[in-house]
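Quick one:
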Amino acid sequence: MGLAVLALLAWAGTTGSPTGRRAWRLLVPAIALSAVVAGVFSLLRGTWPTGLLLVAAGLAMAAVARTPPLRGPAPPPRATPDTGTLAAARSVLGVGPEASRDEILAAHARLIRRIHPDAGGTDGLAAHLNAARDRLLEG
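Output:
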């Protein structure tokens, strides 16, 4: 039985595919439960050192299996363009100080086609473009 467990561990550890990782995530709790059950059985039969060792190992494996994987640090937040001033709004849309309403709308339409959420962009970038357009049209 021990050799079968070792073979399963070796198989799960060597497969680099997502299926292998999923198998590993299912295999470790099963081994932990098996170790606890075998430890309790050993304790009932009177072999205290073996039983305590198996129960401790099973509980340790269960604790490790429930621990989420370590991830790297979160990336720093990206700086968002400020659209509060007219100069900042002009730079977001790429228009000059003398841009007419039609030029502002054309620049907004050209940029929003690229970064609209439906075209693969993000909601945040689309919101900044809309805020810049609104700031220039009102001011």
